[in-house]
Amino acid sequence: MVSITCTGCNKTYQIPDSELPENKPVDLLCPACNTVLRVQKDQQQTRAETKTPSQTGPELMERIVQTSKALPPMPQIIARANEVLSSDNSGFKEISQVLETDQAMATRVLRIANSAYYGVSVPVTSVQQASALLGFQTLFELITVVSSSRMMGKHLEGYNIEAKFVWKHSLSVAVGAKAIAEKYHPELINDAFMSGLIHDSGMVLLDSHVHKNQRQFNELLARGKTLQDAETEMFEFDHAALAARYLKNWKLPENLTHAIRYHHSPAECGHDPLACILHISDAMANTNNLESNFVMDNSALDAIGMPTDDLDQMTFDMEDMVDSIIKSMEA
């Protein structure tokens, strides 16, 4: 009797020796998920060696992009707020009207506006007051924070990451990236914050597929593979590539999706400054090893002129600011 475990669904089957040829592999379809299982009679236990085309590569990526419900299309309130803030004819009244369509959003925006991170000297009690004190761009930042907390605050079963840590990591990378940009590339401040919030959205999209291949994924990490290398070995793409493809549907500026695509490997895109900023901030925010076996590429520091000595203080400041934002949201 030959025992075989499918990597597609982790079901185990027992196949009588009499049904298999001697010392010759044979391909069978898993009855549960149609994964191709390569079985050989002289094996005591084997696993699937190949996968159907729909389970890997560009075909799988496109299927996830087109059918996944894990992430929404661009939240309408972000799209509308961006439209209003980009118009020369918009004022406090128009942006207030946008937020009035979602009172829960407005309430959380005001809570964050009163956090220590934004440093206002008087209590902020209305959206119009927040606009006047903080400016339109910061108000848009607040809207994206609240919206992304809904999107990114999800438990990732395949990656074994609790919802609160997924969201905290996303916010940390955004805050850290903004701080780095302020000091070394001020023209990228807004892009750094926005891309930081959603840089790991591909993990949300890919999580169910990782979970289906849990044993293989865990084995790859145990062997020292980085998160993205394990994903690539399993699916022929990683979560960064998937996020970049998905976010094209949001019609984000190309420099944002490009930086998200290469935030794990900035050297591969010629050390694009925004990709380098995301990479460094990701490393700063990875103190709890959220992304297994993460290794920072120090050439990213050199590319933007950031000395290694700045890392500790900026990491400390980032953690302090993130705690103040999260505390305000939980109030």
UniProtKB/TrEMBL annotation:
InterPro entries: HD/PDEase_dom (IPR003607), HDOD (IPR013976), RNase_Y/CdgJ (IPR052340)
SUPFAM superfamilies: HD-domain/PDEase-like (SSF109604)
Top-rank taxon, per record: Bacteria
Ranges of residues in domain HDOD: 71-266
Gene3D superfamilies on file: Hypothetical protein af1432 (1.10.3210.10)
Pfam family, one: HDOD
Identification of the protein by name: HD-like signal output (HDOD) protein
Species this protein is from: Desulfosalsimonas propionicica
